[in-house]
Amino acid sequence: MIHSNITNSLDILVNKIEDVKLTIKDEVERRFEEFKDIGKNGDELDLFSELSFCVLTANWRAKGGIKAQKFITKEGFAHYNEEQLISKLREVGHRFPNTRSRYIVENRWIIGSLKNLLQKDISESRRFLVENIKGIGWKEASHFLRNVGIEDVAILDKHILKIMKNYNLVKEVPKPSWTEKKYTDLENQLRVLSKMVEEPLGKLDLYLWYMETGQIDK
């Protein structure tokens, strides 16, 4: 009976995603081409800007992160001192301007190595980011990789986890104290859905995000 309920829930979710695809597939494809272009043609400052965006959006909101990224610019992320970054983040209303500014400054050592990092095995690259970059956990590392065009990663934020719970992919929304095993186990649960709708995890995230928010962000 439990298995039947899960199957029925998945079927309903698949149908909803297919309906959404009819409306926004072209836009999703365009957005993902933008992601790939950053990964392929962007310079180290473009990549560091995306990494800093992911540092900023953790426990904040995507729209705010996008606004902050445009306001600070890639040169600002690379060159502003900590006090300047704090001032900029306060101007855009960031919840944690002091902490996030410190993280961004302390993460600058990675500039010059990000292109090379993207050429490695994705699991290895993600693990490296989690272990070595301030303000980056499993969700944020996945977010960065997806935003530079990596398709096979899931961004397990509260919106996606809520959908997973509502459609019986998980029994309850887990607390975001991620270990690698916990994250990849849930990612593999989403991979089942990914195969059913014939979309990679990175694009599936955009469809699920749209279902929850009505937006296609990044």
Automatic annotation (TrEMBL):
Q: Name one GO molecular function term.
A: class I DNA-(apurinic or apyrimidinic site) endonuclease activity
Which residues does the UniProt record annotate as the domain HhH-GPD? 56-216
Could you tell me the Gene Ontology terms of the biological process aspect for this record? base-excision repair
* Organism whose genome encodes this protein: Petrotoga mobilis (strain DSM 10674 / SJ95)
A Pfam family hit: Ogg-HhH
Indicate whether DNA repair appears among the record's keywords: yes
User: What protein name is recorded for this chain?
Assistant: 8-oxoguanine DNA glycosylase/AP lyase
What are the catalytic residues?
A: 139, 157
State what this protein does: Catalyzes the excision of an oxidatively damaged form of guanine (7,8-dihydro-8-oxoguanine = 8-oxoG) from DNA. Also cleaves the DNA backbone at apurinic/apyrimidinic sites (AP sites).
UniProt record similarity statement: Belongs to the type-2 OGG1 family.
Q: Where is this site: Important for guanine/8-oxoguanine distinction?
A: 218
EC number from the UniProt entry: 3.2.2.-, 4.2.99.18
Q: Which keywords appear in this protein's UniProt record, sorted alphabetically?
A: DNA damage, DNA repair, Glycosidase, Hydrolase, Lyase, Multifunctional enzyme
Check the record and name the InterPro entries matching this protein: DNA_glyclase/AP_lyase_Ogg (IPR012092), DNA_glycosylase (IPR011257), HhH-GPD_domain (IPR003265), HhH_base_excis_C (IPR023170)
Q: Which gene encodes it?
A: ogg
Catalytic activity reads: 2'-deoxyribonucleotide-(2'-deoxyribose 5'-phosphate)-2'-deoxyribonucleotide-DNA = a 3'-end 2'-deoxyribonucleotide-(2,3-dehydro-2,3-deoxyribose 5'-phosphate)-DNA + a 5'-end 5'-phospho-2'-deoxyribonucleoside-DNA + H(+)
Q: Give the HAMAP family listed for this entry.
A: Ogg
